[in-house]
Amino acid sequence: MPEFEPRIVAFLCRWCAAAGADLAGTSRLQYPPNAIPIRVNCSGRVEPQWVVEALKAGADGVLIGGCHPGDCHYVVGNYKTRRRIYLLRRMLAEMGIEPERVRLEWISATEGARFAQVVSDFVAELKRLGPLHGNGGRG
Amino acid sequence: MPEIKPRIGVFVCHCGKNIAGTVDVAKLAEAASRFPGVVYATHYEYMCSDPGQALLKRAIKEHRLSGVVVAACSPTMHEETFRKAAEEAGLNPYLVEIANIREQVSWVHSGPKATEKAVRVTRAVVEKVWGDRPLEPTEIGVVRRALVVGGGIAGIQAALDIANAGFEVLLVERSPSIGGHMAQLSETFPTLDCSQCILTPKMVEVSRHPKIRILAYSELEEVSGFVGNYRVRIRKKPTYVDPAKCNLCGECAKVCPVRVPNEFDRGLSLRSAIYIPFPQAIPSTYTLDAENCLGIVPLRCGKCAEVCEAKAIDFDMQEEILEEEVGAIVLATGYELYPKEAMAEYGYGTVPDVIDGLEFERLLSASGPTRGEIRRPSDGKIPKEVVFVQCSGSRDPEHHKPYCSKICCMYTAKHALLYRHAVPAGQAYVFYIDIRAGGKDYEEFVNRAMEEERILYIRGKVAKVFREGEKVVVWGVDTLTGKRVEVRADLVVLAQAVVPSPGTEELARKLRVACGGEGFLKEAHPKLRPLEALTAGIFLAGAAQGPKDIPESVAQASGAAAKVVALLSRPKLEHPPEVAEVDEELCSGCGICAPQCPYGAITVDEVAHVNEILCEGCGTCVAACPSGAMSFRNVGDEQVLRMVRAALEVEGAGV
Q1: Please, is B379 exposed, middle or buried when counting C-beta atoms within 10 Å of its C-beta (0-12, 13-18, 19+)?
Q2: Which one of B100, B616, B640 has the shortest CB-CB distance to A50?
Q3: Does B87 share its domain with B224?
Q4: How far apart are CA B35 and CA B25, in angstroms?
Q5: What is the 3-state secondary structure (H, E, C) of B115-143?
Q6: Could you tell me which residues of chain B have a Cβ less than 8 Å from any Cβ in chain A?
Q7: Residues B547 and B618 in one domain
Q8: pLDDT tens digits for range B301-345
Q9: Interface residue A22 vs chain B (CB under 8 A)
């Protein structure tokens, strides 16, 4: 049986996290290809519902990437995200889903290496956790 | 959303070998041709090249495409390019999206997995385009005049540059005269130009400029509106003197019985209640300071009016509220020195012969309280030994300000040098942590102070300053020799930290402009957008944004003015249409959205309303709406969920 390859949906804010991901590319840093990026203007746009739907649709983990606290292009969007994701993770735990499957990370436009590291770490963690039950049975 | 059958085209770029060397571009195009909604897919060597763009345009027309996905480099590179090309072919540019398969795929992955990810990424973006609607940028008119807040050198420079480009300027200054701190300085480093001599011609130019209206003794009360269309309320305090009639004879000040500390001399001299801050003040008029006058209502004294031959004094003058419209605002509110009360360890505020840098400027100035003779405040004696303390309140995160105030190394060298010129037999000591003389001819200037003027630079911090008889004793450590140092000085000058001028944060709140941790106005980007605030149409100049010397303030002011001129010169402004919008049928008017918005773009009555111009498009309100009434143009919930499902679809990977 081939090694389990987790599927990740990555919601990345345009100004910091997506720019950081671009820098990882410009710097030719290699990292696992498991995360499919979806660019949004601000991490504040990310609805908890999207995260839940992504997990339902077959994702083993969801990454939300935003600007560092104080650096949000839209002043405070990332603070709202932080509260929402904090709450969502607690709700997931109540439902028996490991909260570690939802990751909120602050990645600046200059942190290409950090983006690559975050994805690598997340993939490793999801491999340890295994497929999200209900999504199991696929390679 | 009505399900019209989409006709999407997918264009896969090789980017030479950058993409094609890793991703199987033929396979990707082939897979894309089988995506739902796609009617045409191809791949080409360089999509951004002219032939590449021509290919795109031709395909849009030939295949009557309703949307386009270009699978290529990051959208920050060529989104604009392809949207323009599509527009030229008659397709709404907001129906063109980029699938980033270079920075986020081919440059970071290898092997067949790279192609698989490219397929998933492209598939997701096709879903986005499927849900995209054609959009038009919102057009707004521009009020072709500017407001400059603060009449120091930065505000003066910005006002002149904007006015010289042909636009009207309102220059608001809260004190009775423009000129700012620069008017208080004696000479300027590193050239030792007389500060007033280079400043006052500019002040006169401002006062004579037909396009500039000075509103002195005035403050900005309220701001509403948005870029190109700000409405401002300005409160103009009464000066009780008609500037058109005042002939500056000064008889009023002579008969005034009141004596209060003179702000212009930093309290080192006294002024009357009716006064002119300094002889070259602009507007060129006396001002009656009602707070310190014996009484206007009812009139208690009235001696000034009795002697005024020009009949310029009008005790019935009322405060005025001006409502003005402007298209752009420059904030040049400047700095103040860190308050003396905060420096108890250096005896500031208790030992009279401990003064700050600006007080020393007044002692050096020919127009100052001592007519340029350096006489100490306590007894008027000429000090034989003077200690200058750098970084007083700066670079001290435990007790005071963590940052470097930037200008103090230079002005301290200047102070010590000018002191030596004025008192050739005197000895000057400078306590310093480091010398930061980064600037044109700055290092040479400091060296001149050290070597030619025999000023004793002692590397180390001062621990304590206290009074002993007639002397001011300074205890410090020379960190180069490791020895304790005691100097029995006659005068101590503290290079106090530079802080934002009082009221900066309050002003920033009114304008929805951010302040950094230390209260300085925050620029939109520390490197690439240092002249503007994040709020569109508001620009920054001078030390209000951070400690700056005169050349830097002037440069930033001219830069900000150029930005203002560029803005005011545009026939119309366009605001991106990708913003939040409300479905009024669904909105319950709960109002959860409004406080989420950092721009104040949402108002709620029965239902919520989004001001499209104020909305910057973060979407935070959309995520917060509990009834699904708030949505985001071209990033709808259903759209995103379809992207998510498409990205995860096993079959969809097609490889």
Answers
A1: exposed
A2: B640
A3: no
A4: 15
A5: HHHHHHHHHHHHHHHHHCCCCCCEEECCC
A6: 74-76, 100, 102-105, 107-110, 113-114, 116-117, 120-121, 124, 514, 534, 578, 596, 598, 616-620, 622-624, 632, 635, 637, 640-641, 643-645, 647-650
A7: no
A8: 999 999 999 999 999 999 999 999 999 999 999 999 999 888 889
A9: yes
- Contact between B47 and B102 under an 8 Å Cβ cutoff? The reply is no
In a domain, B151, yes or no: no
The confidence band for B222, taking pLDDT boundaries of 50, 70 and 90, is: very high
CB contact under 8 A, A50 and B598: no
Pairing of strands B145-149, B168-172: parallel
Q: How far is B104 from chain A (nearest CA, A)?
A: 6
CB contact under 8 A, B618 and A42: yes
Structural domain including B581 reads 576-633
Taking an 8 Å cut-off on Cβ atoms, the answer to whether A41 and B578 are in contact is: yes
pLDDT for res A75:
83
Q: What is the pLDDT of residue B5?
A: 86
User: Could you tell me the CATH number of the domain that includes residue B602?
Assistant: 3.30.70.20
Alpha carbons B106 and B112: distance in angstroms, whole number: 11
CA distance A109 to chain B (A): 12
Closest chain A C-alpha to B45 CA, distance in angstroms: 20
**Pair (B505, B495) in one structural domain:** no
Span A43-95, pLDDT tens digits: 999 999 999 999 999 999 999 999 999 888 888 899 999 999 999 999 999 99
Are B643 and B616 within one domain?
no
Candidates B63, B131, B50, B64; CA nearest to B97 is B131
Into how many domains does chain B fold?
5
